[in-house]
């Protein structure tokens, strides 16, 4: 688009896609992006400030996202979308341009809870839960992290022991997304035979979930403490397809993959909001877009957004080709979230004092990304995963 002098339209084609990354996407991928972007523009942007300020998760959007095919969209069968990894990534990017909390819902529902059932569940599990979850009629959560076991899930203390009729679960989980509104929870617990996953309907006696309040991040989202007190489950509740941490790690890698795309969506939204602002804000008799230091900040944002998007796209192509290694997912999660936070913080400085209000998105995105930076593996964890991949020497223990 040619340059213009009309405020926020004063951008060039290089301002929106400097390296013409769109040319690397298929028509189907671009059509999906248009569809999700329209949903974000119509349903999320007009409301996100009030949701964030009031700490409200917009549960009425769940069935809408189901009808758009966004829930479990990368899974096949059982009314799931069967979309490619790249398509799922594009959807994650657009949703997080709206807010990290909305993209996190899609991730918890599809990449964690639904993936666990799809990958490791019985046929009964799949038929009972997946179609309803894909439609947004049922909500799932994924219970791995504990109050004393975050980056070290092997240190979990939740246990499942055999009882008269099946299994009995006792323990606690923390920072579990959606748990208070979920219909089903995938709970990981130690057993005498190793770590196993259990499909736990949340109305089972002894299961309780309490939202964590007073958050400074992810306010338009739900994270909970779960308590499990003598939760009685039938033998059929166990996920039969996996034993050990390979199970939850496989699901976490699905979520980490979506995060690398989503973080670039948040960064892009912060950049675009301040790019418009720099043409509208007049100081010393001219728009601040004409200042050298402002242009330097904008250029640095463009560099990292374009590089991060290419990282996500290449990772997605590898995933679709069946060639992606978990260590390569760590590259994208570590780089893209770290850079997205810096972009959002830099964008806030361009806004000056106005940037601390909800009128502008960068600080909201930056606050949300502090949570994204922590969950599904901290910077330190992904650094050590990459270090092991590079040197061949594990440093975790």
UniProtKB/TrEMBL annotation:
InterPro entries, per database record: Acyl-CoA_DH_CS, Acyl-CoA_Oxase/DH_mid-dom, AcylCo_DH/oxidase_C, AcylCoA_DH/ox_N, Glutaryl-CoA_DH_mitochondrial
Protein EC: 1.3.8.6
Domain Acyl-CoA dehydrogenase/oxidase C-terminal: 250-390
Tree of life domain: Bacteria
UniProt entry tagged with the keyword Transcription regulation: no
Residue ranges constituting the Acyl-CoA dehydrogenase/oxidase N-terminal domain according to the UniProt record: 26-137
Pfam families the record matches: Acyl-CoA_dh_1 (PF00441), Acyl-CoA_dh_M (PF02770), Acyl-CoA_dh_N (PF02771)
EC class name: oxidoreductase
Keywords: Flavoprotein, Oxidoreductase, Transit peptide
Known pathway: Amino-acid metabolism; tryptophan metabolism; Amino-acid metabolism; lysine degradation
Catalyzed reaction equations: glutaryl-CoA + oxidized [electron-transfer flavoprotein] + 2 H(+) = (2E)-butenoyl-CoA + reduced [electron-transfer flavoprotein] + CO2
Domain Acyl-CoA oxidase/dehydrogenase middle, residue spans: 141-231
Stated name of the protein: glutaryl-CoA dehydrogenase (ETF)
Origin species: Paenarthrobacter aromaticivorans
């Amino acid at each position: 688009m040619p340059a213009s002098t009309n405020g926020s339209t004063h951008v060039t084609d290089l301002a929106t896609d400097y390296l013409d990354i769109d040319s690397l996407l298929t028509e189907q991928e671009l059509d999906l992006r248009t569809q999700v972007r329209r949903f974000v523009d119509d349903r999320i942007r007009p409301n996100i400030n009030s949701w964030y300020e009031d700490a409200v998760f917009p549960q009425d959007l769940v069935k809408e996202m189901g009808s758009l095919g966004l829930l479990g969209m990368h899974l096949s069968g059982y009314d799931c979308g069967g979309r490619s990894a790249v398509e799922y990534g594009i959807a994650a990017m657009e949703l997080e341009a709206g807010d990290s909390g909305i993209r996190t819902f899609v991730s918890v529902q599809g990449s964690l809870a639904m993936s666990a059932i799809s990958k490791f569940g019985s046929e009964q599990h799949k038929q009972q839960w997946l179609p309803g979850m894909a439609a947004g009629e049922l909500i799932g959560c994924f219970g791995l992290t504990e109050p004393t076991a975050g980056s070290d899930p092997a240190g979990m203390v939740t246990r499942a022991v055999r009882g008269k009729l099946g299994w009995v679960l006792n323990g606690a989980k923390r920072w579990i997304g959606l748990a208070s509104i979920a219909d089903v929870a995938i709970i990981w617990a130690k057993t005498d035979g190793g770590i196993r996953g259990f499909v736990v309907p949340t109305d089972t006696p002894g299961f309780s979930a309490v939202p964590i309040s007073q958050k400074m991040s992810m306010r338009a989202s739900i994270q909970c403490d779960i308590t499990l007190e003598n939760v009685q489950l039938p033998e059929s509740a166990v996920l039969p397809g996996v034993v050990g941490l390979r199970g939850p790690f496989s699901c976490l890698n699905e979520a980490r993959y979506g995060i690398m795309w989503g973080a670039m969506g948040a960064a892009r939204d912060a950049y675009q909001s301040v790019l418009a602002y720099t043409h509208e804000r007049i100081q010393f008799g001219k728009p601040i877009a004409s200042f050298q230091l402002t242009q330097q900040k904008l250029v640095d944002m463009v560099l990292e957004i374009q590089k991060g998007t290419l990282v996500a796209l290449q990772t997605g192509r590898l995933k679709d080709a069946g060639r992606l290694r978990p260590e390569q997912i760590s590259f994208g999660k570590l780089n893209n979230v770290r850079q997205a936070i810096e972009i959002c913080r830099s964008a806030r400085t361009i806004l000056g004092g106005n940037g601390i209000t909800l009128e502008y998105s960068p600080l909201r995105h930056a606050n949300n990304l502090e949570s994204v930076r922590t969950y599904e593996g901290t910077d330190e964890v992904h650094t050590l995963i990459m270090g092991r991949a590079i040197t061949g020497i594990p440093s975790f223990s």
